[in-house]
Structure formats: structure tokens, C-alpha cells
Amino acid sequence: MSLVDFFRSHWAEITRAALEHISMVGIAMLLAIGIGIPLGIAVTRRRGLRAPVLGISNLIQTIPSLALFGFLLPVPWLAARADRLAVTALALYSLLPIIRNTYTGITGVDPAIREVGKGMGMTDKQLLFQVELPLAMGTIMAGIRVATVIAIGIATIAPAVGAGGLGGFVFRGVAMVDNQVILAGAIPAALLALAVDFGFGLLEKKLKARQ
Predict the structure, then answer these.
(1) Is the distance from CB of 103 to CB of 43 less than 8 angstroms?
(2) pLDDT band at residue 27, thresholds of 50, 70 and 90?
(3) How far apart are CA 43 and CA 28, in angstroms?
């Protein structure tokens, strides 16, 4: 059986796995964005937070993905459901690019623009939401783009803890020593990462063009 024939005969299963993969990554990214952007903003407002926040985020990135999944297994609420554990791990891995780019984008705003805002009587909150965040959005989006692509790749390991996704084909193919089964998971995951990267790239260009 050729690879094309294999994809045709297992299309429903591959599609279901792809949707599980997208769901895990999507929820994880929403969590990472909801935590990462506020933390990045907080770091720009309180310099004392920079070292611990970025340090912990960097530390998480250095932990091998399988090891991080293993570290989370003893946590009662997370371990009760494999998808919770997988989403949490993916969100943790996605934090660093989002926090760092949020910090870099806001601190990279021209000081003269800030002074103009202050001269107009803007409060710190108004300056943040009306000036700094709009100008930093291109850089922040670049961080989200990198984080999402990383999460798509790491999500292929989720079946190691019982979660779903395209990684199930990869693990099954390795166990069976069957390249077709491996590629049934690897190719859709790679195409998904490329599509997301391309889509975010277009959005990033549009945001930068408006600045």
C-alpha cells in the first residue's frame, strides 16, 4: 500500500487526530496568551520582576518535553485527565516567547512617543492600551507565532501520557517500525505548523504596516 492509499483509507482517523491536535494547541495558546501578555506587561512596569519571570520561563524551556510531562503527572487535578496535562505542558512551553516579545515590544516603543502621550495628560493605563500595546502588537504577534509553532511540534509527544493528537500515529509507527504510520502523523503536523506560521506571518506584516 502506497502512502497516498494509506492516507485515503485512514482519512477519518487522521482527521480526528488532527482536530484533537488543533484543540490541544488552541486551548494551550489561549492560556499562554492570557498569562504571558499580562506577565510581559508587568515586567515592563516592575523591573524587579524581570529576572524571576524571564528566568523561570527560560528554565521551563530547558526542560525536555517528556520530562516536563513526567513532572506534571503527580499533580492530582492534571493527572486525572491526560488532555489537561498535555494542555498545561504546552502552555508552559509557550510562555517564554510571548512574555519576552511582549516585554521587548513595549520597551522598544520610541521614548519620544511616550513623552508626547504624557504631555497630552495620558495616565499610565491609557499610555499602555492606547500607545504602547498597539505599537508593540507586531512584536507580540511574532512571539505568539513562534510559541504556536513550537506547541504544534511538542504536542506530538502528548500521546506518551495518554492524550490524543497526531503524535499517536508517530508512536504507533515507531512501535510497528512502519514509516507510513509515522508519516501519517508527521506530515499533517508539519503542514499544520507551516500553515500556522504562514498565517501568523501575514497577520504580523499587516500589524507592522499599520504602525
Answers:
(1) yes
(2) very high
(3) 22
Q: Which residue, among 108, 168, 96, has the nearest Cα to 136 in the 3D structure?
A: 108
Instruction: Name the residue with higher pLDDT: 189 or 77.
Output: 189
Is the Cβ–Cβ distance between 147 and 97 less than 8 Å? Answer: yes
Chain centroid offset of residue 206 CA: 20
Inter-residue contact 150 to 115 (CB < 8 Å) = no
Average pLDDT over residues 133-155: 93
CA distance 15 to 164: 12
Q: How far apart, in whole angstroms, are the C-alpha atoms of residue 28 and residue 60?
A: 15
| 104-140 pLDDT per residue, tens | 999 999 889 888 888 888 888 899 999 999 999 989 9
Encode pLDDT of 52-95 as tens digits. Answer: 998 999 998 888 888 888 888 888 887 678 888 999 999 999 99
